[in-house]
Amino acid sequence: QVQLVESGGGLVQAGGSLRLSCAASGNIFRISRMGWYRQAPGKQRELVAVTTSDGSTNYADHAKGRFTISADKVKNAVYLQMNSLKPEDTLVYYCYARIMTDSRYEYQYWGQGTQVTVSS
Prior knowledge:
Number of helices: 0
Low-confidence stretches: none
Largest sheet: 7 strands, mixed
Shape: elongated
Radius of gyration: 14 Å
């Protein structure tokens, strides 16, 4: 059993900043990647940023230059620093992880989602 617990969402004015956090716990042998997606009502979940176990990162175009993803391997955690927030960033943000459990099989896991609201 693996859980992803997110925190850090909330309400901020346009141009402001928020930091999202996500910690994985449970039956974890190895985490190959962690990241963040976001979703608008009635639309598909879209990539924000992802980081892999070798330290590489990938950002969606809308996040480049404004958001920074980082990870703490000791804490099995991933963070998303969001700066220069815009009203169009108002969405639910989901933590994502690809984790190998003690079974040596990899599975995808999702957090419960955290609301980010940017007022104009």
